[in-house]
């Protein structure tokens, strides 16, 4: 997992819960990195899992809710860092439909070792989309949060539901519908 995901996560933890909480969750985790991350480095995904589950235990906020809040922050950072990847989209549906074939393809060129999910587009109309998320990291709640932020960016109201296609959440079908 890319370092930017860690550095932005720890920045947000510091912002919302204070530097002491950052120290606490780093100390509670067993981290090969020692808890020292650079944006361009690559670290084990297991480190992120430990950090976020310790944050969840210490704050009594579910991992799912933490991932949704984190998605809000991460999306702002990604759009600011890579404006050229989003600037030519005129609506949120086309942006989402293009993650697999454009946005994450470019991300993979920038970071050849990035581990990205896949999104398979099953249905698309003017108002509705069905997409299947697949990733062994099971970060579908982060995905849901990033989808919600995409619609917020264009100021379009949306309803997003999902169904897990397996118990561990490595395959999840999303139902994305514009609110009219
Ligand atoms: C992961 C970039 C938009 C879904 C990532 C990672 C980067 C990235 C750098 C980390 C890869 C790693 O750690 O190795 C971007 C950029 C975007 C963008 C630059 C556009 C500005 C989106 C959107 C979604 C999305 C809109 C939602 C559908 C995800 C998910 C992950 C991820 C769920 C976590 C990894 C996983 O689930 O396996 N993205 N992304 N991304 N991205 Fe994107």
TrEMBL record:
Pfam families: HNOB
Heme NO-binding domain segment(s): 2-160
UniProt superkingdom: Bacteria
Coiled-coil annotated residue ranges, if any: none
Protein's name in the database: Heme NO-binding domain-containing protein
Organism: Winogradskyella alexanderae
């Amino acid at each position: 997992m890319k370092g930017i995901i860690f550095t932005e996560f720890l920045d947000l933890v510091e912002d919302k819960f204070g530097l002491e909480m950052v120290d606490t969750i780093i100390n509670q985790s067993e981290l090969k990195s020692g808890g020292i991350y650079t944006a361009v480095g690559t670290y084990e995904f297991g480190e992120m899992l430990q950090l976020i589950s310790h944050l969840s235990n210490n704050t009594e906020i579910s991992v799912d809710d933490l991932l949704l809040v984190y998605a809000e922050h991460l999306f702002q950072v990604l759009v600011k860092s890579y404006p050229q990847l989003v600037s030519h989209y005129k609506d949120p549906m086309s942006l989402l439909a293009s993650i697999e074939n454009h946005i994450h393809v470019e991300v993979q060129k920038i970071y050849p070792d990035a581990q990205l999910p896949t999104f398979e587009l099953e249905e698309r109309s003017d108002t509705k989309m069905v997409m299947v998320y697949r990733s062994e990291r099971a970060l579908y709640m982060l995905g849901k949060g990033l989808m919600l932020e995409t619609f917020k960016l264009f100021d379009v109201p949306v309803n997003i539901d999902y169904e897990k296609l397996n118990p561990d959440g490595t395959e999840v079908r999303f139902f994305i519908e514009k609110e009219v």
